[in-house]
Amino acid sequence: MSTGSVAPRVAPARGTSIDDLLARVQGGHRPDVDETEQLLHAPLDELFRVAGALRDDGLALAGRPGVLTYSRKVFVPLTTLCRDRCHYCVFVDTPGQLNLLRKPTYMSPEQVLTIVRQGQALGCKEALLTLGDRPEERWPEARAWLEEHGFASTIDYVAHIARLITAETGMLVHANPGVMHPDELSTLRPVSPSMGMMLETTSRRLYEEPGQVHYGSPDKDPDLRLRVIDDAGAAGIPFTTGILVGIGEAVRDRAESLIALRDLDDRHGHVQEVIVQNFRAKPRTAMQGAPDADMHEYLATVAVARLVFGPDMRIQVPPNLSDPRELGALIAAGIDDWGGVSPLTADHVNPERPWPQIDDLAAQTAAHGYTLRERLTAHPEFVQDAAHWIDPALHAPVRALADAAGLAADVIPRAVPVVPRTVPEVPRAVPEGGSGTSGGPDADLPSSVRPSSSAHHAASSGTAGSGTTSSGAASSDPGVKRLAERAASDPLALDDADWTRLLRTTGAELDTLAATADDARRYTVGEPITLVQNRNLTSTGFRRAGRVAAGEFDLDDAAAIAADAADLGATEICIQGSLRPDEDPSGYLDLVRAVKRGAPGIHVHAYRPADVRDLADRGGLGLDGALAAMREAGVDTVPGTGVKILSERVRALVAPGDLEIDRWVEAITAAHRAGFRSTSVLFYGHVETAEERVAHLRRLREIQTETRGFAEFVPIPLPGGDVPLVAGRAPVDEHRAMVAVSRLLLSGSIAHVQIPWTRVGRDTAAVLLRSGGDDLGGTLYDGRVLPDTGIEQGLELPVAAAERLARSLMRPFRQRTTDYRVAPA
Questions:
Q1: Residue range 77-112, pLDDT digits in tens
Q2: Closest Cα partner for 73 from 238, 233, 194?
């Protein structure tokens, strides 16, 4: 969007060298296609110098010097059906795949609101609706679903969902439904203050030539996509678009694509941001063997996008598609926006690339001299000129979330009615027995955004128009179904009796509970099943004087074990267990240093609260001093183990030698405050009651609210316990209920639920991954150096075996780091 210009400069005379061209661009010259292609071959340092200066000029002109922006969002994959066949996409499914995955044809209104309300509680202000292009034109199943629920088209349903989100939560919708006609753009404008569609590329070769990435995808016709962007400008819609780098396009194609987008913005001034996105190869696609976008070419394209569009355009890159170490180079290349980042939901289009933590992104931004600020889905310039760019129906919702500068205010969204425009009533067909013009809360809405009576029923009850849950579970007591849905939508709204009832479900009710929990998993952390390559080292076996028995090791052994583990592919060494009383407590620190010496880049996940207390007390360091010493020695994260359940009654009966509950809580909280993230656990199946399980989960959630330090939760059956909450309930059902309730009660708080495959076996682990679980923990390599020194020795889960398990569930597999980042290649 053009909002002004930098101070006039005297442009040098036209020359032929890159230096001359860059000088002219910095002086205000707008490069043409030939010049843009020339710039794409220029040295990066020269491009960065000019692009960075233009970006800084633009931020100063906008009144926010040194401020980079992002939008705090939830990602809503409304349907994964699509009529296109892009060769790099893992987002889409076929109807057959949906059945096998137990996924709905379209997310129901209740499923959408379940996720959006959790995002609302976390301060998200944007709901990104992403879906496939016009699935009803390829798939009869999509057409049947829409007709059954009273919607004329997918766009019609998008409009209903968008209005519902803002009315129920106050959040603003960014609609990204693909190719739209002018009347569809007009339908969405009153419910979505901004919209988007990537141009991707102007290359007709990639669209027309068999075997190329867009061949067979009618909505990827470059001329059609340019027309949609043009129509959006004519309709006065703030629009997000951009290009993909590395999908087979030529450098000339990149130049032509950037100039084509600039020409459209010149015509209407509606392009609010240009995304420059790098291709990342994905498994199970035709392009799975293609190389990722070349980083040098990607950085050059980012910088040249800045040079083409000048200081006033927002240039965006997705932070999750680059290594954290590369974010500084992207800032240097002239970007000023990171796009939407979610504290709750996965990037469902790029499921193998988790979002960075927002605090981490802010720290990275600050490390390069800039401040990170939250914006709304519509950029500040458009928010401040709402009379022109925002439909009157959305003025109140936008105003409720914006500060004086048009950025996001520091508020939690609240429900704000979307005032409809006054337009002529247009009747529309609805299923027999329904009426699209009857009275009720939507009677005054334009027909394009008013749901039929059946859709109203779905919105209020969460049903999908049949006697099954959205995931295919059998019908059950509607009270349990409603209770499970309430649990998914607002965990804190249930009392202990409600959660106890869910923990005790059996039969069809348990099927419903597990399906609801699995939906909550699917629409938050996404489909990937994750695993970290690691090895355990039991520090109780440490002997500074040298090993004399099986299971023992000294410092040299620890270094050799770490080196061997790294050579096997491990990225983590997990160390836990209190040292023997006759070992000096400095051994805790020396052991970490030895591991780092043997494998300098390995992640050390070390020391339970009880171990930290031992170092603090016997070492005379105090709790804070012990944690600081651990950080200095090289500890990266800590295990949140060493407690069975947060109940003194249970501790006295089952594990009187464990750390007292209050001291455990104090230690784990101190670790979080010292900057360590940790795991969390619950051991069940012994003397504990259902109420004590619920109290434990609530206490973990309270700690998480205070510290945000838990990375995962692991519900672990206590060895030898096997005491079910419901007499006669099968062990697998005991585990299903525990995993499902854990997912629901901790949803929006602790993101990942890990399945302890060492305790339940691989077959049961697969069942639990369909009950709300998303992670398999670690490989637990025994290694070739002293293989008997680790906890759970003799149990290994090789990466290939984990991949096969994920494949059997038709879910993607991803290797992760300890803190749930993408594992290094």
A1: 999 999 999 999 999 999 999 998 889 999 999 999
A2: 194
- Secondary structure (H, E, C), 59-87: HHHCCCCCEEEEEEEEEEEEECCCCCCCC
What lies within 8 Å, CB to CB, of 617 at 6+ separation is none
Query: Which whole number is the average pLDDT over 498-503?
Result: 97
Cα distances (angstroms) measured from residue 426 to each of 32, 439, 441, 451 = 46, 15, 17, 13
Cα–Cα distance, 519 to 524 (Å, whole number) = 8
Quick one: which of 682, 683, 733 has its CA closest to 712? 682
The span from the CA of 229 to the CA of 263, in Å, is 11
Task: Give pTM, 2 decimals.
Answer: 0.87
Partners of 129 in the β-ladder? 76, 175
- Pick left, alpha or beta for residue 819 (phi over 0 → left; psi -120 to 50 → alpha; otherwise beta): alpha
Instruction: Give mean pLDDT, residues 437-453.
Output: 33
Q: Are 791 and 577 in contact (CB under 8 A)?
A: yes
**φ and ψ at residue 455, rounded to 5 degrees:** -70, -35
The CA distance from 756 to 738, in Å, is 12
Pick the closest to residue 465 from 166, 153, 106, 160 (CA basis): 106
For the CA atoms of 305, 91, 114, 116, the dihedral, rounded to the nearest 10 degrees, stands at: 0
| pLDDT tens digits for range 392-401 | 999 999 999 9
Other beta carbons within 10 angstroms of residue 387's beta carbon come to 8
DSSP character string of 15-36: -SSHHHHHHHHHTT----HHHH
Render pLDDT for 175-205 as a digit per residue (tens, 0 to 9).
999 999 999 999 999 999 999 999 999 999 9
